[in-house]
Design goal:
The protein is an alpha+beta fold. The chain has a domain of 54 residues: SH3 type barrels (Roll), CATH 2.30.30. The chain contains 3 helices and 5 strands. It has a 5-stranded antiparallel sheet with strand order 4-3-2-1-5. The protein is elongated. The N and C termini lie far apart (75 Å). 8% of the residues are buried.
Length: 105
Amino acid sequence: MTVQQPGIGDWYRLRGIELFEVVAIDEAESTVEVQFFDGTLEEFDLADWHTQCASGAIREAEPPEDWHGSVDVDAEDDRGGRDPTQDDRALNASSTGGLDLFENL
């Protein structure tokens, strides 16, 4: 199977091993930007893309079950578990609750 035209958001395998997603296509520059599952970004010349597809080096693939890859997103964050309007400073601030820090000195 050959891939004729890359699509943003589509997943592919390079040489049957490295899984990546197309993240941008620049038609003016004739380039395809991809992000490998480990987070590495790479750019292909569109002509090179077609050559590698024709040779079988690039093949369509299913997205991984854990598509987050190296992106640091917790499952709770992905579901929107935290109120985005909450001030982050409130999360770090705490009262000493009457604790005398110098009591035992």
